[in-house]
Amino acid sequence: MEYKIVGKTLPAVEVTLNKGNSIYTQSGAMAWMSDGIGMQTNTKGGLMKGLGRVFSGDSLFMNTFTAEKDNQTIAFASTVPGEILPIHLEKGQIGYTVQKGAFLCAEPTVELKVAFKKKLSTGLFGGEGFILQDISGEGDLFLEIDGDQVTKDLKEGEVIKVDSGNVVAFEKTVSYEVETVKGVKNVLFGGEGLFLTKLTGPGKVILQTQNFYDFASKIASLIPSNNN
Q1: Which of 14, 39, 64, 87 would disulfide-bridge 24, Cβ 3.0–4.6 Å?
Q2: What CATH number has the domain bearing residue 129?
Q3: Whole-number Å distance between alpha carbons of 17 and 164
Q4: Does 225 fall in a domain?
Q5: Radius of gyration of the chain, Cα coordinates, nearest whole angstrom
Q6: What value, to the nearest 5°, has the Cα angle with vertex 77 and ends 74 and 78?
Q7: Over the stretch 118-159, which tens digit does the pLDDT of each residue have?
Q8: What's the distance, Cα to Cα, between the start and end of the chain in Å?
Q9: Residue 131 · residue 114 · CB < 8 Å
Q10: Total of domains in the chain
Q11: Are 105 and 182 in contact (CB under 8 A)?
């Protein structure tokens, strides 16, 4: 797929499609497009898969854009300052587990579904949404990074503990679990929240420098209440 990343502070990915080529995204992510592109809205995979995406932070409906003639362009923009990360999945590649809200758009040959976990404590993912997303298949996809991207290549058995809001994605070879912060004083006064995500290698881990949940809470704290 031919594409380019445009912009710096709030980037967008601009994709070129020839007749019959398609790309899909969650509802509302498209920024601009050529006149020769059609849009179809559906639950992509059925109602149950659509409901699963809602639980994982995305929309019930997905939009599929298809070029009706050659050399058409369409762009998908990020929602907060940061980066857009392109990933190409080869046939048979193991794929990624992705934090909710990180998925931006992908070719139809890339499958996005809910990553259910047997243990609720494992799936809780730091108290900021208890279901992750599973990305597999073949083709190009794009993830949204809040702030700057940091990539860690974990060796077999190597562990990194991360505030869950700073996790973007990790290869499926990486195992994860949720740990509670130890010590009452640490929980109450440490400012790091109640949970940490423990990631164990081998595999690639993609992190982001901005925790959107912390950012949003700081903004909310500055909004005057009706009582003032």
Answers
A1: 64
A2: 3.60.160.10
A3: 35
A4: no
A5: 19
A6: 155
A7: 444 444 444 444 468 899 999 999 999 999 999 999 999 999
A8: 53
A9: yes
A10: 1
A11: no
